[in-house]
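INFO  loader      accepted 1 record
INFO  loader      residues=405
INFO  predictor   begin
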Amino acid sequence: MRILATLRMAARALRRNKMRTLLTMLGMIFGVGAVIASVSITSGAKSQVENQIASLGQNVVLVWSGNFTKGGVRSGWGSAGTLTLDDADAIKREISGVTIVSPEVRGSAQVAAGDQDWFTSIIGESADYFDLRLWPFAEGASFSDQDVRTAAKVAVIGKTVATQLYGNEDPLGKVIRIKNVPFIVGGVLIPKGLSLQGQDQDDVIIIPYTSAMKRVLGGTTLRTINIQAASQEMLAPVEQQITDLLRQQHRITPGKDDDFTIRTQDEIANAATSTARIMSVLLGVVASVALVIGGIGIMNIMLVSVTERTREIGIRMAVGARGGDILIQFLIEAVTLSIIGGLIGIGGGILASKLIAYFTSWPTLTPVIWIGIASLSSGIAGVISGFYPAWKASKLDPIDALRYE
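INFO  predictor   done
INFO  writer      dumping tokens
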């Protein structure tokens, strides 16, 4: 009963000064709202990057040509044709823990179907490429290993190419001309959206790499070798084995730079999400400062309240209230201000993140765990900011309090 009476007194005190109560909560509202909004923005960005990384496939190792120093100039990946089909065959044959190897050649060309034409990316791959990328088909199927061996004129197209060339027509079995070479469309891929570089992954035609090299793009070297390891634990060992093998294949002596670049899916993911992590830390610091300021505001108002209600405290002590009762009452008032402000801030932060997503098309995501963390943080902030004023009120001398004007 004593606790219930204390709760009623605390609620009555807060209702007595509604405007001051609201203004006191504003600091906590903005602080918690800033935390939720910043977490939503950074979580959404990170989730989008992770989804794009996942679109590469599972346990993927990428080997790019290039990355060497020659004449004092250091070139980037893909700048030189240093990878060959022999390299891909050696990796498939000699590296343990590898399940898929897909040599890749890449270029772009004007393509046509009927009276429609389109400029798009042309990629040559093995028949296992779609399994490596976990890229399902909307209709049709992949070309076969036999198609790769015979450099068959068969093609798999992305959704963007299908829409641009065929509109609402079914493209399966139809002819698509790539640099005036006729190919038969054997499959249409499920849309994947944008890549990490912001390119449309669906604006692509994929053909056997032998067909790309002999019939369309020419050349005898590879731009990339796509590799799938048997498990995530095998990524690092496979990367090291490939490095050793390619250095041996390319006769690179100790101390010389590699003429290729290797990245695992984990390394790509860490590099891609590093910006999101940095932004998360910076926004978190700013939001935490706002939360601390909100707590200081509550402490300041509670100290003012203790001073204003000194005589009331003295009367309560005179009629039997103990110091603990006074302490609990003022703590309850501080925590109530903080929690209500925190809950309003959570709602405001979620609303702000939705508005940001709507007007800027940025992805946002509010993890449920952060709603709990924000609620707990606001409660703790209320306890911390309210303890000193409550303790000060509980230590007042009843006689002095009654004499206070």
